[in-house]
Design goal:
It is a single chain. The chain has 348 residues and is an alpha/beta fold. It has 14 helices and eleven strands. Helix 3 packs across helix 11 and helix 3 packs across helix 12. It is globular and about 55 Å long. The two termini are 40 Å apart.
């Protein structure tokens, strides 16, 4: 079951009055209902008020969706599984999930999913340990008790991939569900766990506020972990839905470029725009927000194009997932991609 982020829906569904001054926007907004735009529902599997969704928030606050004739609604879901089910049922046009979930759903469960864009080219999961017993290499996870946000799921699979990259069987890395509360770090310092898994935003905060924290980045050992825009094959085959998805991707790409360009200004305008409409905890400390946004810019620009998917990296991620037994070998991961909607413009 999904719950609508009503404040976001109201913001993005506001009228095109301010945009009517521009002829192109006038053409896009005219005759498409009260909001002046064609409806698109985006399912966010994490709270929207995270810098992980900075491109979506910038596309909203700068009117980039409206300028392309779209009335975008954000809806929160409890993880990727319900998001996938809702998209497949036609209850939403798209979601953003990891390449791991996408491949397992399409390759293991035969879900007719298509990934059509990759806004974040590298993994955003991090593992935290302490200077007293640091974990800085994949092989060091052997025999260490690792706290995970939930049982199974992407975080646990990412841990399996990291261990597998060093030849460590998953069963030799014990784990315990610890959730995501701020108090989890105390479990680490008290010795109840040896490491735990966090988001990129949280890792930046810990790196700044907990000098004893040691951050391990899985990207140094595995290819899997990128974030994908995903829709159903049925919706992609519908010309009208496909057109809306293309316009959505174009708005997000423009937002990403705006954030990239704003790095030279310390992300001042990015933070101002996001803060004008959204309550993002990371913005409470501008230095933390700046560091997090800089890390996301690195992830935006790690590919050859802003939203393009590298076939080589996609294949490498599939091979890694096969290697830990989460997918059968011999499948064609390219069948789960549609790269024709994303721009061919190179990243800066």
């Amino acid at each position: 079951m999904t719950t609508t982020t009503t404040r976001s829906a109201r913001r993005i569904g506001r009228t095109c009055a301010a945009a009517l001054a521009a002829c192109a926007v006038l053409a896009a907004c005219g005759g498409n209902g009260e909001s002046g735009g064609e409806p698109v529902t985006f399912l966010n599997v994490l709270p929207l008020e995270s810098l992980s969704f900075a491109p979506e928030m910038i596309a909203d606050t700068r009117g980039l969706f409206e300028a392309r004739g779209l009335d975008v609604t954000f809806e929160a879901t409890q993880g990727s599984a319900p998001a996938i089910q809702t998209v497949l049922a036609g209850g939403a046009e798209l979601t953003r999930i990891g390449d791991i979930e996408t491949m397992i759903a399409a390759g293991e469960r035969d879900a007719p999913l298509l990934a059509f864009g990759e806004p974040i080219h590298t993994g955003t999961i991090r593992m935290i340990s302490t200077e007293a017993a640091p974990i800085t290499r994949a092989e060091q996870f052997r025999g260490r008790l690792v706290g995970t946000p939930s049982e199974g799921g992407t975080s646990s699979i990412t841990l399996d991939l990291v261990a597998g990259s060093a030849g460590v069987p998953p069963e030799e890395v014990p784990r315990q569900v610890v959730g995501l509360s701020p108090g989890v770090f105390d479990l680490l310092t008290s010795g109840r766990v040896d490491a735990y898994i966090v988001s990129l935003d949280t890792s930046v905060l810990l790196d700044r506020t907990r000098p004893e924290a040691v951050v391990y980045d899985p990207n140094q050992d595995v290819d899997a972990g990128a974030q994908m825009y995903v829709t159903s094959a049925e919706q992609m085959a519908d010309p009208q839905t496909r057109d809306r998805l293309e316009r959505y991707a174009a708005a997000v790409e423009e937002a990403m470029q705006f954030i990239i360009d704003d790095e030279a200004n310390g992300f001042a305008e990015t933070m101002r725009l996001i803060g004008s409409e959204y309550e993002v905890p990371a913005l409470a400390d501008p230095e933390v927000a700046t560091a997090a946004l800089s890390a996301y810019v690195d992830a935006y620009t790690a590919g050859d194009t802003l939203l393009g998917v590298s076939p080589e990296r996609w294949q490498a991620a599939y091979d890694e997932i096969v290697g830990i037994g989460q997918l059968p070998p011999g499948l064609d991961p390219g069948a789960w991609l549609d790269t024709t909607l994303t721009s061919a413009a190179p990243t800066p």
